[in-house]
């Protein structure tokens, strides 16, 4: 089920919303959020609800045991066991075939069997939820909850279950604790407002771009130089408006259930430098990698070389997290390398005019998205080659309409504020604006639902 | 206590939906909301055009029969049939007709007072495609859809049809259609747009452009035949068997015809051998054709109808050069079929 579908908009959400506000106690609301999360998830494939439940129960019990253990070794045992279970699930379902085919390729014979494994949707997100919870409990940053329904509500909250943001328990613990309170009027306004803005981003902008970019990239060999740039720029904006639209909708839904989900995007294409970019793009993932990988490895406290290694490793894992494909790995390493250069070149880049630096950063990000979008290195090589005007030039260029769309995106992403900077208030004007935005976005759906790009990760 | 903001939002949204429905009902670009009001319909296709022609033709002198089928039956000449059988016939073949089109048109014709005593049905193999997807032009035709809805009264499908039609209005493509209709009404084209095909008053098709290129000696038949391969590949590529639901439409049609004493002649329509060979290699066409033959024989037994197998050109002595493309015969081959059907009907005691 996706947010931009009739079944969600006219059946699932209204029912859950009404039941939520008819229920009065914490327990009732936790159970409702849990059940709705499982229904939402089960719409894709109900069998994988058991996997979700298993992962949730393991981390719930482990966290309690960590908290109750008196010795450090006991805490560590439960921590390691729980993380291993999560990573084993993720590793098997997401990476087994990738690893096996790589090993087989290197060995030159099919030494390891390949299985017909379906990647459970959202597994990358909910395993990161559960890992962050038990690590935070082990490090004393959060108290383990003894209410299993509260914990289940956190893990399978439908608004962020499938594609994030990667919310940490401590970020919404207070809201979960007070979930039985009445919904403040400004929460309703923000909830509706964020959802409407997200719909506009996804359905009007991202899907419109996708209708041009996808056919172009399906036949990437036929791209001209202008077409290669158009496709790269188009995908750059498609991905941003798709994922940030999803995140806005998730935030909006969170507000409507009294839960403040943290910001995930902050106008990333206005970034000055790659470090700044990662402070603005998929913020919940980058901060997760920073806190649970980079800092755990020592961060920048162990010398320059070790800092660089930590950066590369964190970004390598960040790339791999996106999918079992070498293009993601290289994309992660590319960004790791850029982060190292960004640090080293700071004295130089700080003297650059801001507009030049922003443009240069954007260019580096676009090149990264070419790697990210390519299904294999051949595609990436052909696409990048065409962008620099080398190799055979094809016939597919950029139509006037698509050029206009791209120009609007360039202007919007550089001028408009982030969704979070809109001060959505419970006023008549905002209600009217939200209704118009929602209605127009619904018309743009054209009766079809399109899946969010990040559902595949 | 309901949220004031939520109520405001829902009030504005309801007002928008209400205004939009009112605009859609007034402009009514696809005739989804009953008859025409202020604006001409945007979509002119053979279904609507033939409905208009039929009303005129039948109004001049009542018809005795109709020809149903797809574009592959559009060249069967009513005048030839009348001269051979004495029956006044209207050619109601429409583009990409499927079984549901046959049934809808048959019911619509009868609901418009036509007292038929003969029905000629050109059955394409893909008219029984198991994808069960109705042609958009049928779905946009409110009168024909009503005839189908009558078949499904009280069923879940009827509700689904209404829901789909209603929801299809809430799309940008519908908004574009509304804008186009209003703009065409505001700025009508100065002269009629030239058309590739026209129908005469009896529904007989004339290929204007193709006949012009034939007369000019620029028509390349082989190219046309090869050119139609991709289109027909698309039609057959997903077809695995004959649709149960579409067979039911055919059988409902034949049962109604039998109950009202209407003689029926059904033939399996031909395609050029080059196209048949191509589809045989790329799809399950050969097996599907066999299934259609078996089904047609079953219909003959069950409903006492005349059945002809013209699926291969050699079965009716087709002229090899008598094709516009891989699926559409020219008037010479169509005349051969017309004659065989007419003779068959006369022998059958029409």
Describe this structure in words.
The complex is a heterodimer of chains A (457) and B (350). By secondary structure, chain A is mainly α. Chain A contains 19 helices and no strands. Chain A has helices at 6-22, 26-45, 49-68, 72-107, 123-138, 148-155, 158-161, 169-177, 185-218, 225-256, 274-280, 283-294, 304-322, 326-344, 346-349, 354-373, 377-387, 400-415, 428-445. In chain A, helix 1 runs antiparallel to helix 2 (26-45), helix 9 (185-218) runs antiparallel to helix 10 and helix 9 (185-218) runs parallel beside helix 19 (428-445). Chain A is globular and about 65 Å long. The mean pLDDT of chain A is 91. In chain B, a hairpin with a 5-residue loop joins strand 4 (197-199) and strand 5 (205-207). Chain B contains 14 helices and seven strands. The longest helix of chain B has 24 residues, at 4-27. Chain B is 54% helix and 8% strand. Chain B has a five-stranded parallel beta sheet with strand order 2-1-3-6-7, with helices on both faces. A two-stranded antiparallel ribbon of chain B has the order 4-5. Chain B has a single domain, classed as 3-Layer(aba) Sandwich (Rossmann fold). In chain B, helix 4 crosses helix 6 (142-151). Chains A and B meet through helix 9 and helix 19 of A and helix 1 and helix 8 of B.
